């Protein structure tokens, strides 16, 4: 009789047992030698101390004490899965990237979903932005599209990213989170956060699951086609967005902290493979020059009316990781992992990201993180050698360039696709924080959200505003009143009727 308290994920070990009924494998040390005993350490007499020569024990203990690696500084808790990307529409007039070269072409992918602020063991169903990163294993190398479930981000200059993240993390003295004062203080000092705040506190701040969640590249990238023509682009992946009500989310956070991981794992294991439609928005450099909003500002969207979604393909997740640590904890996405035909844009946040991910991977996973199978390109040939945990060091091939011994040479196609970008301007630090922070937020609030969505948004904002200081509440009321006077009034009213005492 089936046990109603168990789901597909609970059967994992039973499935293994069934699949390995005639397993004749013997326990070995990490160097493969069979061991004589696994239930007792080597002692001198029954109560005697353990001998240093119990190297089997030392082998295991020494590995155990090194089991954890640094967790991701952001996006620590997440779920991963594998599948494929398929081209359904021709976009070769915009890009020569091989991943898009033919309709019907399939490319293997890995995807990782995450929440931003919580640590590895944090409950899944808490209000946060969700990460939605895709690794494409293309013929031309790895392309990582490290996106989120919102089209915009809170801040737009990478100089502010670490501070903003700190406000979402634990208070350095109390070690508790969320610290509403840290959050509202910075948010209201930087009104560029307004647009993303409206999304964060909307229904989308609590997705029902990872399977039905939109994704966005967020930052602006660029395409180059085979004629060398250059376009700016944004990436979108769409599903049927499903959200969760805050009461259910709170309950699940206590009862089933891994709710989103379980949901994704079970769906894939049961053959209910989630899929998304993949789109791009395209802006020519001329349009970018004349755009009324900064196309490289990640707190802004490109309006669909001006830059419609162009269908490109679909992707499907049909395989769970064989081992979580090896394939999900050790996966590393990097916005600098681009391929010929796809380029960065001057988006200031993206520019910072181009440095930060490789840097953290060298710290978190080691200098040879690209040799870890889940991160490996189909092929790589360069002059980098050796380093800790080298798995292969390109054998006998020359380790310097140029050389006269037929070492790897330059790919002419990649050279032709490398754009020539005219740059001009004075080196200066220009704060772009007050660059029209309200027009798009107003559009979202008044024209996109329905009245019931607006009511829930206000409730959710009040939940986070009530515990903060009066000074920050006042600043928030003032900031959101610039989106819509009525929104400001409703927040003020809600806060005045608060039962919470001012902290
Ligand atoms: C300058 C700004 C940013 C910096 C310095 C930064 C830095 C980082 C770092 C250090 C990680 C951990 C990576 C790892 O350990 O593997 C990370 C993960 C991530 N970031 Fe950012 N980030 C920035 C902005 C953004 C933005 C704007 C987005 C929105 C698309 C974003 C999306 C993600 C995602 C989805 C992950 C998780 C990747 C995974 O699943 O492994 N980040 N970020």
Automatic annotation (TrEMBL):
<dbReference type="GO" id="GO:0020037">
    <property type="term" value="F:heme binding"/>
</dbReference>
<dbReference type="InterPro" id="IPR024708">
    <property type="entry name" value="Catalase_AS"/>
</dbReference>
<keyword id="KW-0408">Iron</keyword>
<protein>
    <recommendedName>
        <fullName>Catalase</fullName>
        <ecNumber>1.11.1.6</ecNumber>
    </recommendedName>
</protein>
<dbReference type="InterPro" id="IPR024711">
    <property type="entry name" value="Catalase_clade1/3"/>
</dbReference>
<dbReference type="GO" id="GO:0046872">
    <property type="term" value="F:metal ion binding"/>
</dbReference>
<comment type="similarity">
    <text>Belongs to the catalase family.</text>
</comment>
<dbReference type="InterPro" id="IPR011614">
    <property type="entry name" value="Catalase_core"/>
</dbReference>
<feature type="compositionally biased region" description="Polar residues">
    <location>
        <begin position="1"/>
        <end position="12"/>
    </location>
</feature>
<dbReference type="GO" id="GO:0005739">
    <property type="term" value="C:mitochondrion"/>
</dbReference>
<dbReference type="GO" id="GO:0004096">
    <property type="term" value="F:catalase activity"/>
</dbReference>
<dbReference type="Pfam" id="PF00199">
    <property type="entry name" value="Catalase"/>
</dbReference>
<keyword id="KW-0575">Peroxidase</keyword>
<keyword id="KW-0560">Oxidoreductase</keyword>
<feature type="region of interest" description="Disordered">
    <location>
        <begin position="1"/>
        <end position="32"/>
    </location>
</feature>
<dbReference type="InterPro" id="IPR010582">
    <property type="entry name" value="Catalase_immune_responsive"/>
</dbReference>
<keyword id="KW-0479">Metal-binding</keyword>
<feature type="domain" description="Catalase core">
    <location>
        <begin position="28"/>
        <end position="409"/>
    </location>
</feature>
<dbReference type="Pfam" id="PF06628">
    <property type="entry name" value="Catalase-rel"/>
</dbReference>
<feature type="active site">
    <location>
        <position position="148"/>
    </location>
</feature>
<dbReference type="GO" id="GO:0042744">
    <property type="term" value="P:hydrogen peroxide catabolic process"/>
</dbReference>
<dbReference type="InterPro" id="IPR020835">
    <property type="entry name" value="Catalase_sf"/>
</dbReference>
<feature type="region of interest" description="Disordered">
    <location>
        <begin position="388"/>
        <end position="411"/>
    </location>
</feature>
<keyword id="KW-0376">Hydrogen peroxide</keyword>
<dbReference type="GO" id="GO:0005777">
    <property type="term" value="C:peroxisome"/>
</dbReference>
<dbReference type="InterPro" id="IPR002226">
    <property type="entry name" value="Catalase_haem_BS"/>
</dbReference>
<dbReference type="GO" id="GO:0042542">
    <property type="term" value="P:response to hydrogen peroxide"/>
</dbReference>
<dbReference type="InterPro" id="IPR018028">
    <property type="entry name" value="Catalase"/>
</dbReference>
<feature type="binding site" description="axial binding residue">
    <location>
        <position position="357"/>
    </location>
    <ligand>
        <name>heme</name>
    </ligand>
</feature>
<feature type="active site">
    <location>
        <position position="75"/>
    </location>
</feature>
<keyword id="KW-0349">Heme</keyword>
<comment type="function">
    <text>Catalyzes the degradation of hydrogen peroxide (H(2)O(2)) generated by peroxisomal oxidases to water and oxygen, thereby protecting cells from the toxic effects of hydrogen peroxide.</text>
</comment>
